[in-house]
Each structure stands twice: as structure tokens, then as C-alpha cells.
């Protein structure tokens, strides 16, 4: 749920509850005030009534010509105390329009000509009820308007207030750690957002710097390693010029030599992987991979005929991809080397390419591990070979970095590498 | 032939020098940029082998200075960086070759020889070893005056041997010389063997002595029997 939607929802519920409570309280207060007023007036009339009875010692209906205003009835039986005063709500049928009309009624007892009478004075509430209705409707209307207005304003305001936040968020999403462009964030006037941006900026800069120094470290370490390796190789080469070497010594020297060559190849492989990851290659350009592959296969004719492999190329259309030239070369070289290395004598290599996909398959033994795992670094299908186990990782890394999907599967002794373009 | 080796790794410079001196070169070393600069201003060299990363400067600057002084000096870059940009830049400013570390001394030696041949005689020179004569610019091989029909790889192999006479060559260095760095060694060693067998057969057929000796566990050596 979006932040603004959430705050709006909370605000709306809260306001509705508050407004409803306010409306109820308001209604009650108005009713209370009006009843108080009516009751005060009824008390005044009671005093008028008592004064009249005292003066004339009798009771006449004349001053109360309005219907239902007063009702005087003699009391039989037990007499309640004179001081009693009871207010009640009552409904009385209107004679003219046959309607029940609300009245407030004051009941008290009065002695007229020595006899106790029950006196009921009434006041119509019809006016006050209308008043309450009008006030309530008006209030609801105004409160509703206020609610909608507030809601609208609040939405607008939040949108504006949170604008720097959303801006920061979208920039963060676009931020690429490995790119050279640093993260640039605005300095909004709201302190919290400014502090947030400052903190993020600092973090991003630090991250980028760490990433860069790690990258540089890997690169430098690999480079620095090449020189001592060159020294080992050169020394070994000098050592083997010695003619008095025994067989055991030769064996040891050979082992040193092989190991140092392996390290060197490992190093070059890792360096290449790091460079692809860091996108340290010059601009991509259109490369016809299928043409490059068949060219490389014909370059390897000697190895192919030595291992008695037959090559079958079916190219209908060029399979063009965007790659830096040197990486296209690495990719093709690794694919071809792989197809040759894991083949068996008298095997075959097939290259089938269309406009949208390229498939290089070779015969070979059945796989013992999952094909996906072979793309991982240092994963080798066969132990003890001279390979360092980086070839397929390099293939995959090139694919990942330049929008190519490279899959590998084995069915009935046919190993197939399929390259397709990833539609972005 | 005078060669200058500009390399800050003392051991490596020593190895290169030893190898070159054995082959009859006059070899000097410079471990720093300043030293190298001084030497190229004082003396003339036929070939300069330059490491790109030096403690106090860049190998490219030495090449540029060298090319200003004497254009005919051959330049071979040896670098730990295997970057296309570096190779292109090197060629652009006048270097003749680029070797990535680690390299084989025999390969470096072969490259130096090939470079010097090209530089000094425009490639129009013959390489002679006993009864074998190689004419590089036409890629012909004669044994006792008789032309020998060698395949492209056999020719390259012979030339590599002739550049490193009396030197034990590893199978790996031969394989890489013939097929480049990316060759997979397991297969290539067998291929090296079959090429050497063919070359030896062809030379023997034309009446040459058997110069190719195999050294157990290491590789091959081309020398007087």
C-alpha cells in the first residue's frame, strides 16, 4: 500500500469518527438547551397559574384558549405532595390536521377552592424540533464539506511534501553501483529529507568507492601475480637447459611448470571475469556470432582432424548480437574449446543458427552433474583435466552482461549450447 | 646485436638476459624508467624489450622517446596486462610486438629474432643451420639445396627451432607458439608430437641429419646430434 493511500485512509476514518461524535454531542447540547428553555417557561406559567388561583380562588380556562395548553383535573384518593414537579414528553393529536405533535408537559398539584387538582401545562415542541432538524442538517452538510475539503487539501499537501522522498526513491532505484556515475540527490528544504539524502549519498559514495577499490584490488593483484609467474616460468625454462638433470628432477620441474601455467591461466580467467563484470570493455558492435563460430571451427581444423571430429554447419541467416569484439572472441573460443574438449573420438560438432538463436552441439559422454552447476566457477565435469573450470562461467558472464541467454542441456549424449537474445 | 631489457623485476630481467647472452646477443638491463631513458640516449640498440609498468614511469614513454631518437630500433612490449587497448596503443606508437606475461623465453627469443630479421634485412635473409636453409620471405626450406615441402605448421615449427637452437623447448611453449595462448594443452601436446614426427621425417627424407631430440618429460631440443 502506498504511503499516501495509507495516511488518507487513516485520516478519513479518524475524521469520520470525530465528526460523527461531534454531531451527536452538538445535537444533545442543543436539545438540552432547548428543553431547559421550555421548562423554564413552563415554570413561569405555573407561577402565573398559581397567582391566578390565589387571586381569584378559582380556575378559568379563558387565558388558555389555545388547545391542549392546560389540563386541570381534580384528584381523587391519595394526594401527592404539593411541591412535586414532573416534566414529561408527550404526544398529543392535533385536532386540525390529525397529526401527533410532541409536547413538553409539566405536571403539578394545586389546591383550588380547597380541593387538590392535578394541573398539566404543556408547550408544543414542534418549533424546537424543526430547529434541531435544520441545525443538524446544516451541521452535517458543513462538516461533510469540511471533511471533503480537508481530505483534498491533505492529499495535495502530502503529495507535495513527499515529492522529494519519491524523487530520492526513483533515483536510488536507477542507481547502479558498478557504473562510474555517482548518485546525485537534491537538497530539499525539509530537514528530515535533506538528512536522509545526505545519509544515502554518503552511503552510496562509500559503497561505490569500496566497490571500485575492491575491483582495483582484484585487478592489481592479478596483474602483480603475472610477473612472479613469468619469473617462475623463465627460471624453469632456464633450469631445463641443464643437461645433467635426473629423471626425478625433470619430473619435479615439469610439475612446477604445469602448476605455474595453471595459476597463470586461472588468473587470466578470473581477471577476464572481473573485467566483464566491471564492463571494462570498449563499445559493443554488431557481431555475427554464427560466422565467427564457423570461422573459429575452421581455424581449429587441425585439432578437429586430430581428434577425428566432423563439423556440420547450418547457417540460414546471420545471428547478430551486440558485443565488444574481444569478448565475442572469448565467447566463441570458449564454446569451441568446450565442444572439442568434451567430445569423444569420431564425434561431431553441429552448428545450427537462425536469425533468433544459435545452437552449438557436440557429442560426448553423459553428464554426471546438473548442467546449470557447470556454469558456476571452478565447477568441472571431469576431474584431473588441465582445465581450470572457468570457461563456462566466462560464457555465462558474457551472456549475462550483454543480454544473451545461454543455456546448456544434454540429451542422449548430445550436449547443446543454445544462445538466444534476451528481449528487454 | 645489442638488446636492452627494461624490466623492474630483477629476476625476470636476469633470466631474459642470460637467455639472450647464450644466444650471442649483447644484453643490457634497466630496472627503472630513468635508467632506461639514460641508456637509450647514450647507446643505440637493435632491439628494446620494454615492460609497461615501471616503478617510476610508463613503458609507453620510453617507446615514444626511443622512436624519436632512432626509428629503426625494434621494440617488443612485455606486459602483465592483457588488454586490447594497450596492444593497440603500443602498435600505434611504434612497437613491433606485444607479449603478455607470463611468456616463454623461447617465444620471446623467437620474436626478437624474427623482428631483427625484418628490421635489418627487410626479411630478405636466409637462415642457415648446417645443411638446412630457410628463406623467410618466401617461406621456402631447402635441405642440401633440395626444396622440402613443409606444411604451414611444420614450417613455423622449424623456424621456432632454428630461433632456439641448442635450447630445450617445452611442449607447452611449442604448442602456444603454433596455435596461440588459448590452445587446450591436453590435445595440443599430441598434436605437437605428430607435427614433430612429420617434420623430422621430411627433413630426414631430404638427407638432413636428425637434429630434433626429444627430452623426456620436458619437450624437444634442436641441436647437433
TrEMBL record, chain A:
<dbReference type="GO" id="GO:0005886">
    <property type="term" value="C:plasma membrane"/>
</dbReference>
<feature type="domain" description="Histidine kinase">
    <location>
        <begin position="220"/>
        <end position="424"/>
    </location>
</feature>
<feature type="transmembrane region" description="Helical">
    <location>
        <begin position="12"/>
        <end position="34"/>
    </location>
</feature>
<keyword id="KW-0597">Phosphoprotein</keyword>
<dbReference type="InterPro" id="IPR050428">
    <property type="entry name" value="TCS_sensor_his_kinase"/>
</dbReference>
<keyword id="KW-1133">Transmembrane helix</keyword>
<dbReference type="InterPro" id="IPR003661">
    <property type="entry name" value="HisK_dim/P_dom"/>
</dbReference>
<feature type="transmembrane region" description="Helical">
    <location>
        <begin position="131"/>
        <end position="153"/>
    </location>
</feature>
<keyword id="KW-0812">Transmembrane</keyword>
<dbReference type="Pfam" id="PF00512">
    <property type="entry name" value="HisKA"/>
</dbReference>
<protein>
    <recommendedName>
        <fullName>histidine kinase</fullName>
        <ecNumber>2.7.13.3</ecNumber>
    </recommendedName>
</protein>
<dbReference type="InterPro" id="IPR036097">
    <property type="entry name" value="HisK_dim/P_sf"/>
</dbReference>
<dbReference type="InterPro" id="IPR005467">
    <property type="entry name" value="His_kinase_dom"/>
</dbReference>
<keyword id="KW-0418">Kinase</keyword>
<dbReference type="InterPro" id="IPR036890">
    <property type="entry name" value="HATPase_C_sf"/>
</dbReference>
<keyword id="KW-0472">Membrane</keyword>
<dbReference type="Pfam" id="PF02518">
    <property type="entry name" value="HATPase_c"/>
</dbReference>
<keyword id="KW-0808">Transferase</keyword>
<dbReference type="GO" id="GO:0000155">
    <property type="term" value="F:phosphorelay sensor kinase activity"/>
</dbReference>
<dbReference type="InterPro" id="IPR003594">
    <property type="entry name" value="HATPase_dom"/>
</dbReference>
Automatic annotation (TrEMBL), chain B:
<keyword id="KW-0804">Transcription</keyword>
<feature type="domain" description="Response regulatory">
    <location>
        <begin position="2"/>
        <end position="116"/>
    </location>
</feature>
<dbReference type="InterPro" id="IPR039420">
    <property type="entry name" value="WalR-like"/>
</dbReference>
<dbReference type="InterPro" id="IPR001867">
    <property type="entry name" value="OmpR/PhoB-type_DNA-bd"/>
</dbReference>
<dbReference type="GO" id="GO:0000156">
    <property type="term" value="F:phosphorelay response regulator activity"/>
</dbReference>
<feature type="domain" description="OmpR/PhoB-type">
    <location>
        <begin position="124"/>
        <end position="224"/>
    </location>
</feature>
<dbReference type="GO" id="GO:0000976">
    <property type="term" value="F:transcription cis-regulatory region binding"/>
</dbReference>
<dbReference type="GO" id="GO:0032993">
    <property type="term" value="C:protein-DNA complex"/>
</dbReference>
<dbReference type="Pfam" id="PF00072">
    <property type="entry name" value="Response_reg"/>
</dbReference>
<dbReference type="Pfam" id="PF00486">
    <property type="entry name" value="Trans_reg_C"/>
</dbReference>
<dbReference type="InterPro" id="IPR036388">
    <property type="entry name" value="WH-like_DNA-bd_sf"/>
</dbReference>
<feature type="modified residue" description="4-aspartylphosphate">
    <location>
        <position position="51"/>
    </location>
</feature>
<dbReference type="InterPro" id="IPR001789">
    <property type="entry name" value="Sig_transdc_resp-reg_receiver"/>
</dbReference>
<protein>
    <submittedName>
        <fullName>DNA-binding response regulator, OmpR family, contains REC and winged-helix (WHTH) domain</fullName>
    </submittedName>
</protein>
<keyword id="KW-0238">DNA-binding</keyword>
<keyword id="KW-0902">Two-component regulatory system</keyword>
<keyword id="KW-0597">Phosphoprotein</keyword>
<dbReference type="GO" id="GO:0005829">
    <property type="term" value="C:cytosol"/>
</dbReference>
<dbReference type="GO" id="GO:0006355">
    <property type="term" value="P:regulation of DNA-templated transcription"/>
</dbReference>
<dbReference type="InterPro" id="IPR011006">
    <property type="entry name" value="CheY-like_superfamily"/>
</dbReference>
<feature type="DNA-binding region" description="OmpR/PhoB-type">
    <location>
        <begin position="124"/>
        <end position="224"/>
    </location>
</feature>
<keyword id="KW-0805">Transcription regulation</keyword>
